[in-house]
Design a protein that fits this description.
By secondary structure, the chain is an all-alpha fold. It has eleven helices and no strands.
Length: about 190
């Protein structure tokens, strides 16, 4: 669906992080992400505990306490120095974002190959980035106005009179937003 939409001039998903997009198109081999990007609060807290360990003994205790989680990701290891904590955290993040989702990423790439879009993404990643990567922007009155085209009832009907009244309020709202230069955040 994403490939069909973009190729036919429609919108892209615009929901991916820049890191994921660069990984998807092959510009990077792994997804670099901070601990804060881990959506699971419990996992995030465990990773923060490990990262914030101040002694080797504390790190070893945390390594044993969370052994099953680390073993699942292939990150459980013999820790010899306090600096090993960085490698454990980095390895877990790589597993969490990249390796455990590899099959899903491949299926997504296969879907993007529809109409040869994936090749175009690989060849021109910066051109397609606005279609794929999330960017926050204020919703302007002009954009909102362009999204909606009213389908009115026949002229003279009681529904038409009510629709024209509501449409007038809607246009007043948009005009006020344009005049004030305000983004449309509340309705």
């Amino acid at each position: 669906m994403v490939a069909m939409s973009i190729v036919h001039g429609g919108p892209g998903p615009r929901c991916f992080s820049e890191n994921f997009y660069h990984y998807l198109v092959g510009k990077v081999k792994t997804i670099e992400a901070p601990i804060a990007d881990v959506p699971d609060l419990d996992l995030r807290n465990v990773l923060l505990e490990i990262k914030n360990a101040t002694t080797l003994e504390e790190l070893l205790e945390l390594n044993d306490k969370h052994a099953s989680m680390l073993q699942t990701a292939g990150c459980y290891r013999c820790l010899r120095t306090l600096e090993d904590k960085e490698q454990v955290v980095n390895d877990y993040i790589q597993w969490y974002f990249t390796y455990r989702n590899h099959v899903s990423f491949q299926r997504f790439k296969d879907g993007l190959a529809t109409l040869n879009l994936f090749n175009a993404l690989e060849q021109h990643p910066s051109l397609f980035q606005p279609y794929m990567v999330y960017s926050a922007e204020d919703l302007k009155a002009e954009t909102l106005e362009a999204l909606f085209r009213p389908q009115m009832s026949p002229t003279g009907s009681s529904n038409r009179q009510e629709e024209e009244r509501v449409l007038g309020y809607w246009l007043d709202y948009l005009i006020a937003r344009k005049h004030l230069g305000c983004p449309c955040r509340t309705f």
